[in-house]
Write a structure and sequence with these properties.
The complex is a heterodimer of chains A (547) and B (328). Chain A has 547 residues and is an all-alpha fold. Chain A has 17 helices and no strands. In chain A, helix 4 runs antiparallel to helix 5, helix 10 runs antiparallel to helix 11 and helix 15 packs antiparallel against helix 16. The N and C termini of chain A lie far apart (53 Å). Chain B is α+β, with helices and mostly antiparallel strands and 328 residues long. Helix content of chain B is 44%, strand content 18%. Chain B is elongated. The chains are: A mainly alpha (547), B alpha+beta (328). Chains A and B meet through helix 4, helix 9, helix 10, helix 11 and helix 12 of A and helix 2, helix 3, strand 7 and strand 9 of B.
Chain lengths: 547, 328
């Protein structure tokens, strides 16, 4: 046996830190970190989705008894916090990690070790949040917004773990954001001017700047809340002179840009996918890039539209209505540009394209319902009701998550050298699209009928029950779609015919120049970039030379 | 070739737009049937936004579907490129300016309707005005009438009279939001701060609403209702309450309401225990201990009665002492 082991030893022994597990734990390779980000986020997506299904089970009928009121409050708090902080933001960071260096022709991120630190902080932040299920008093139960004084009165330590988790996640995101900004500014390959930058990279740049601008504000607010809870200060408690509104300003100054942090990179993914599957250049590249900057800028001027019912002076309400409506303009520009990109194209409907088209279809509804809630007198009816729940799910699920799925199907071949199954992919898409609309469209009606959000039960009115039941059915249809996606991932790993070449979609951007999956150093050499579509340029030059 | 389905689509959409107002208030396609001028103006605003956004919705979804059908690959090889169009300045300017104009129109309409929604009518306006103070508390609403009468969860008002609500919450409590959709949009009750809103119920009837800001474990149970009654009925009711609340003994309306609003949501409708423990006959027998408990709370129980007037405290204890030993 000793002799056999002797002969099996490779000529160049693999060091321990390149082992199958240790290789991932010790890695500073942006591609592995990106994949870990995405895998971890998908695991949290599964957890957050299960929480949502339990809630929908409770709400399927009036006065149901699936969970008790306290558990229900914990469920929606954990669901919201999970989806925002542990799914959408980090999965986009995962895409950015994997793609930004490849798209700009760099070998890695500017600070690879800081990058690894970001990931591990993210993982531990998530674990801190989920450990709160075992804390005294259970998980936090004041909603993902955690308004004081409710969050300060909240018993047990769930709320404290929530604060700890968000603090850790903020540091992770901040370090990641700085890394992206430095990388994009300094490590673009020769010829890649700002106007030749892939639109996804543009959105990541603005994502980074927004995170740097607003995360410290969140951290400050969380710190004050922690002090109020644990040391007897009274920043937010009126009985000792504090102000209950202050936190809402602080939170939403972070919270609204956070919405755009979650949607801009999603829009970037759509801007990459649609041109490739339409075989056309993106329509209005400059307008899309500039509208990304405009959305980023205006997103910091709209926070109080979450506070229309608080009792702010009317001139402030007017200002925040107008600033919120202004954001609809650059958003509309993007949608019109995507449509114009489809016009006269040669459209192929592989799963990435289906999800991208689904994004355009449902995100438009979310954008339009945003105009309703921006009009503050109407918001006095819609605020904190299921109308708003429907609105932000159309934006965050119909928007961000549809784009995430488009991106996963699109870049899976680059990441693993294998294509996800098309048949299962199409089932996944249609179940998601149908289930999504069944689940969330009736919630607009529920809100208009008077159903507030965050209630564990509701009036046993037949219409309320009907819409809630439809919504619950839709959510489980989506759940089935997600299980098919999981099954697709597992099956793709095993199927030999899933293997694919370096550039299965005939892509435009530099990541398709690398092998699939790319080697650790990404490129042996990087071609000089002559336009926003360097790979198409190369294909044309080769065709001209008759290669 | 494409014109026919597109036209059919537009026609169907137009039919929907026409049918929708006919169904207003039914089915949740518009806010709850407004029964107060301010709620009516909010619903007007809603329909204006529906008209504009409906147009954009049809434009975007219609062209999306049309392009998907018309420009699908069919038999073309995948690598065939479409025309390499990179943009079109005039078109891009058009779809920047058009949304600006639409939003300006919506914004203008909002500001046009705003005074009739947000401005509380003057006290000397025609028909007079009733001023009520609303306290949002975990998990009930305490309504205070100008003559000192207190009501819990159900607000009775005369029909066709302006009602001004002054909304607040005790400093130790949390944020709530008062909302009766048929009568007015929601307004938060912030601890330590004061807001105001108003309505004028135009029909006799019962209007339901509930707290719209997460306020804790029984947020879902923090419901309210407004009962609009004729002026005579209202005067009679208010007079009756004023005399009953002067010295509440035995079973009074205030005692019953306060029990149902402030106690029952956590202790059960028979006081049998729910989130909080059972209310026993032995506990309620000790008046002084009860006062202390209700005013200051204990453990997980919030100080539900902090700031109550003596009559309300007396009424609920009297109610409990009468009801509880009889097993009620």
């Amino acid at each position: 046996m000793a002799a056999r082991a002797e002969t099996a030893r490779p000529v160049y022994p693999i060091p321990w830190y390149d082992g199958r597990v240790a290789g991932w734990v010790t890695t500073t390779d942006h591609k592995r970190i990106g994949i870990m980000y995405i895998a971890t986020s998908l695991a949290f997506f599964l957890a957050g989705g299960v929480l949502a299904l339990v809630m929908r089970a409770q709400l399927a009928q009036a006065n149901a008894d699936v969970v008790d009121p306290d558990t229900y409050n914990q469920l929606f708090t954990m669901h919201g916090t999970t989806m925002v902080f542990l799914v959408v933001v980090p999965i986009l960071a995962g895409f950015a990690n994997y793609l930004v260096p490849l798209m700009i022709g760099a070998g890695d991120m500017a600070f690879p070790r800081l990058n690894a630190l970001s990931y591990w902080l993210f993982l531990f932040g998530g674990i801190a949040l989920y450990s709160s299920w075992f804390a005294g008093g259970g998980a936090p139960s004041s909603g993902w917004t955690s308004y004081p004084p409710l969050s300060i009165h909240s018993p047990g330590n769930g709320q404290d773990l929530w604060i700890l988790s968000l603090h850790v996640l903020s540091i992770a995101s901040l370090a990641g954001a700085i890394n992206f900004i430095v990388t994009i500014h300094n490590m673009r390959t020769a010829g890649m001017t700002w106007m030749r930058l892939p639109l996804f990279v543009w959105t990541i740049l603005i994502y980074g700047y927004l995170l740097v601008a607003v995360l410290p504000v969140l951290s400050a607010g969380l710190t004050l809340m922690l002090l109020d809870r644990q040391t007897g200060t009274n920043f937010f408690q009126p009985d000792e002179g504090g102000n209950v509104i202050l936190y809402q300003h602080v939170f939403w100054f972070f919270g609204h840009p956070e919405v755009y942090i979650m949607i801009l990179p999603a829009m970037g993914i759509i801007s990459e996918v649609i041109p490739v599957f339409a075989r056309k250049p993106i329509f209005g590249y400059t307008a899309i890039a500039i509208s990304t900057i405009a959305i980023g800028f205006y997103s910091m001027l709209v926070w109080a539209h979450h506070m229309f019912a608080v009792g702010l002076p009317t001139f402030l309400l007017g200002f925040f209505m107008l600033s919120s409506m202004i954001i609809a303009v650059p958003t509309g520009i993007k949608i019109f540009n995507w449509l114009a990109t489809l016009w006269r194209g040669n459209l192929r409907f592989d799963t990435p394209m289906l999800f991208a088209l689904g994004f355009v279809a449902v995100f438009t509804i979310g954008g339009l319902s945003g105009i309703f809630v921006a009009a503050f007198p109407f918001d006095w009816q819609a605020h904190d009701t299921y109308f708003v729940v429907a609105h932000f799910h159309y934006v965050l699920f119909g928007g961000s998550m549809f784009a995430v799925f488009a991106g996963l199907y699109y870049w899976w071949p680059k990441m693993f050298g294998r294509r996800l199954g098309e048949g299962l992919g199409k089932w996944h898409f249609w179940l998601t699209l149908i289930g999504f609309n069944l689940a969330f469209f009736p919630q607009h009606m529920l809100g208009l009928l008077g159903m507030p959000r965050r209630v564990y039960t509701y009036r046993d009115d037949s219409l309320w029950e009907a819409y809630n039941l439809v919504s619950t059915i839709g959510s489980f249809v989506m759940g089935v779609g997600m299980l098919l996606f999981l099954f697709n991932i597992i099956r793709t790993r095993r199927r030999a015919d899933a293997r694919t070449g370096n550039d299965p979609w005939i892509g435009d951007t530099l990541e398709w120049y690398a092998t699939s999956p790319p080697p650790q150093h990404n490129f042996d050499r990087v071609p000089y970039v002559t336009s926003a579509r360097p790979l198409r340029d190369i294909r044309r030059r080769m065709a001209e030379k008759g290669v | 070739m494409l014109r026919k389905p597109l036209a059919a689509l537009l026609l169907a959409a137009a039919a929907l737009v026409v049918a929708a107002p006919a169904l207003a208030g039914n089915g949740g396609f518009a806010p709850v049937d407004p029964q107060s001028p301010n709620a009516q103006r909010i619903t007007d605003t809603y329909w204006v936004i529906v008209a504009f956004t409906g147009f954009i919705f049809l434009l975007v979804e219609g062209s999306l579907i049309a392009f998907v059908i018309k420009y699908r690959r069919r038999a073309r090889p995948v690598e065939v490129e479409g025309p390499q169009i990179r943009g079109h300045h005039r078109l891009e300017i058009a779809w920047t300016v058009l949304p600006v104009l639409i939003l300006a129109a919506i914004g203008s309409f909002v500001f046009y309707k705003l005074p009739g929604i947000a401005d509380v009518p003057q006290a000397d306006a025609a028909g007079g005005r009733l001023d009520i103070t609303v306290e949002g508390r975990q998990f009930y609403w305490n309504y205070h009438y100008p003559n000192g009468v207190v009501a819990v969860d159900r607000l009775r008002v005369p029909v066709n009279r302006n009602v001004r609500l002054e909304l607040t919450a005790p400093a130790h409590d949390v944020i709530h939001s008062w909302w009766v959709p048929a009568l007015a949009g929601k307004t938060d009750t912030n601890p330590g701060l004061t807001n105001e809103t108003w309505f004028k119920a135009e029909k006799i009837g019962l209007y339901r609403g509930q707290c719209a800001e997460l306020c804790g474990i029984q947020h879902a149970a923090m419901r309210t209702s407004v009962e609009a009654m004729s002026q005579e009925d209202f005067d009679q009711w208010l007079e009756g309450q004023a005399s009953e609340q002067r010295n509440p003994t035995g079973e009074t309306a205030l005692g019953r309401q306060t029990f149902r609003g402030a106690c029952a949501k956590c202790h059960g409708f028979l006081g049998e225990g729910l989130i909080g423990p059972e209310i026993t006959a032995a506990t309620v027998a000790n008046t002084e201990a009860m006062e202390e408990l209700i005013r200051n709370g204990r453990g997980a129980m919030p100080p539900v009665g902090e700031g109550w007037n003596d009559q309300q405290l007396k009424a609920v204890i009297a109610y409990l002492q009468k009801e509880k030993p009889s097993g009620g």
